[in-house]
Predict the 3D structure of the following.
Amino acid sequence: MRRMLPRWLRSSSEPPAFFAHDSRHSIASRLRWSYLISSTLPLLLVGGLLLFISLSAQQRTVFNEQQNGAARVARDIIRYISGIERQIETFGLLVRPGASPPDLVLAAQRLQERIFPYLIDLAVIGEDGREQFRVYSLQPISRSDLRDLSGDSGVLRALRQNVTSFTPIAPNRDNRLTFVMTMPLRNDAGTVIGALRAEISADPIIADLRAATSSATSYAYLVRAGDGIVMIDDGQPGFVQPRGIVHLLASADGVAEYVGARGISVVGAAAPITSSAPTGWIVVVEQPFTIAFASIGRSALLLTTLVALVGTVALIWAFRAARQLTQPLDALRTGAMAIGAGHLDYRIHASGEDELAEVARTFDQMADHLQRSLEAIERQNASLRKDLALARDIQLGLLPDRPPWNGDTMEVYARSIPAYDVGGDFYTFLNLSEGRIAIAIGDISGKGVAAALLMALTSSAVESQGRQFEHPARVLTALNQLLAPRLKANHMNAALLYAVFDPGSHTLRVANAGMIAPMLVSPGSCRMIDIGGLPIGAFAGAIYQEETLTVAPGDALVLVSDGVGEAHDPHGRLFGFDTFEQTCGTLNTTIDVRLLAELIINRVHEHMAGAEQHDDITVVVLRPSMTTVDPVSHQEDTADYVVI
């Protein structure tokens, strides 16, 4: 058994020589012999290169054939469109100020008759977007039936942008495939004075596509450039919307391999249709992959067989030599996996004189250092976890657990869920003079201990400044002047919303410094109070505005931090503020404020579906009491806060 083990793994009672090496046992020596045995590798590389060049050349030939086919069809279609466009432009030269309307109608009829039946409808549109006259199927339309096309996108582009545009090809009211071309109408000075709008038959385009599809090995169809939706198919049975058309449209050279219009792999080429302006159409010509690459497959098989035979011989010798290296490397890999799994007591106990033996001895030394370091780190982590738990308790203790007023003034419920042990979100409540009450909710940028420390500072400053100033906007301005130097020094800021409720007038004054706008929820409706401002500390000279609104009995005000809107599900999708607004719209404001807040939090957690929370989540719901009660006899009915 001893002779079966690699030499450098055998135990040795003597101290190993760490720097002395015998060249006969070195990895470098074994690699030289391996390279010598594998001298056929250049032949394999040359064979692989020849195979690659041959396949690439044949593939390029197939791609070029497809591109040329698509370009031919595109040219035929462009020729048809350009011919009609030139005749319509010639007609447009007759439309000048002072021209006789009957003469223009007669000229339009003659133009329509000349290219009948392809020009179905022709209209002259004034600068106001209204039709001045229109000829449909050789017949002039009465003035009462003329249309107002001032909202038509093609007409707007012709009048305002001086460009010609084309609509997608689609069935018209007679179930014929047609498209609409709208071009600007210019006077002799080149100024746009109106537009020409023509409905044109797509029958010649269909004929061009059918002619290209006459071959049994390829087929052509027409799609929209933006989304790849098929406008005209190839006219053969079994045609479906191609699933892989997006890969072709995204290809830089206009050719790609994908699943085509009959659910099989194809080689497709795309050619855009552009006349005097882009039409937004693309000709696609497809050929089944098996037909297109039939000759390539035979060549590839022959070359691959030759390369495989030569490569097999080289690999046999390479594996034979590599096996002598993989045995000690396996031992190192096993040791690394054991260490990675946490078994720091695992040792290789290598002996030998080559480089891998040195690595093994270094590995054992590293394991010893790691084991000692891990023990020290575990002791430090235990102490840190204890300190963080204490910090979390202290931080939660800074948040009020009940309002400083009786429930007959304002019902309130608040809940804060830190993303980590400690967070930067906070809220506070103040009793002011004349029965007024103040509510504040804030969010310190960043997370962790730094945010928690600044949260305590900001919360304390809110309470001190809130008692000095009557208006919320003045409170935020004073806080910004007070805290901006400290926040900016730490490259942080504080979002804060401050609101003052006057129960006598049922008014609420709100000022906002970077927080999510509050949501006012009324029976059967909800709206976001449009009030904003820069976060505290973002700009030392910031001035804040405030909004005053009347809060009716039964209304509820919902305040949240951005952790609600930015909550992610396992796929990274945000909860979003639209969903938050929809959730508020479903709230029944007659239920307890605690249930209102918990409903919002539950909706957020349902969206997260177990995903990691990335930001602190804070929800505050307040509602003026709908009845007046004795504050002494019902003091125990005051709404509580729940803080998590």
Notes: The CA atoms of residues 415 and 642 lie 6 Å apart. Residues 1-21, 628-644 have pLDDT under 50 and may be disordered. Residues 41-92 form the longest helix (52 residues).
